[in-house]
Amino acid sequence: MQWRILILLASGIAVIYLASLLQDVPLPHPAKINTSDLTRFQKPPDKIVLTNAGDYLYQTAVWYKITPNDREGFSVGIGPMKTNVVGYVKQLRKPLSSLLNTNQSHEWTSVFEHQLAGPISFVSDHGIPDLESKPFGVLYYTIKQDIPRFYVRLYYLSLAQMTFEYKDLLLPGSSWINAFTLEKDSILYSRDHDQYNFRFIPIPPTIFSPPHSVEYTMNKSEVGDAVPGTIRSAADDFTQPSGS
Predict the structure, then answer these.
(1) pTM, entire model
(2) Tens of pLDDT along 119-132?
(3) Which ranges constitute the DSSP H helices of the chain?
């Protein structure tokens, strides 16, 4: 009886072993490394942009609307348009080598902190993949005499210093912008009254050259191809009742 149990046990182990030999070789997968990062923010950011450039991993945290200490209690406006609030951008970086092993000797170090002149509406981290400057854009606005002005703060990597620089690009027009992105070599956006099309502004290649931290005025935008469709109004669905 005891021999029978041993034979059944050995047979079961042999079947499991043979089944394991029939399995495919497992694909390689990324190693999981636990880190103890000291990047905990008092207030969680609305957006984080990660950029791999050179020997560093850059982490850019973005807050769309914060109230500065000297304006506490004075925030005005409902919906997307507000006054007395500003956008805030903070960038940190860490050596890539510290992320490739379990020895976490390097913590995040601060690169810059920027308080913008107005609140942020959109962030585009699509960038322009063909460029080494790794650009990404932040759309923000200011209000003067009840007229909004829209800016794109274009961040990009300066290859000479291997640090991120920026330029502020003033967009033409004052209608509210409800969509924004960077695509290839252009700024794409849409305004409130745009129904089935978009606007785009080509980014000149020299925009990434010195001087940095300056403002440029983009004089005009081009209108993209309209999306096929028919614009309907409420009158199209209204039928006048016939008289009796």
Answers:
(1) 0.76
(2) 999 999 865 655 67
(3) 2-22
